[in-house]
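User:
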Amino acid sequence: MTASLFRSQIRILAFALLVLGGGYGAPALADDFPDITGKWVGTYKVAFPAGHATHANQALDTMMELDVYKQEGNLIWVTNKWRRVGTEDWITEYGTGSFDQEDSDELVISEEGPAPQEGVNVGSFIGEYDDGNLYLNYLGAGMGVSFSVELIRQGG
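Assistant: Predicted structure:
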């Protein structure tokens, strides 16, 4: 057997093992996703663009509490509460999210948002679960607001 033919057969065998092993484009199973239910907390700075009505060109310290109150496989349901550092009033937003089917540590969360009179942006989080923490980037396309936050699970 020539070396070229041998390498070709090894490639075919490796590909067959990959396909038969479920690693070729197979979606993750329900129990393949990390359980992230519970309360998560963190602080961040949020950036506001030049055209913002009340916080133009500012970065404000903010506290966040994310409650992942339900999870079914890759789907999650959340309550997101946040407030500016030094204030007492919390803003509450609701959303849903999902883990990526192929990279089961990556997730997105889309917010419903509070009443428009709150002057709060509706946006989405893109992030990942890594080393027991959530790392989220917020994209508030409507007002051009953005931030990133590391959330730490409470009570566990």
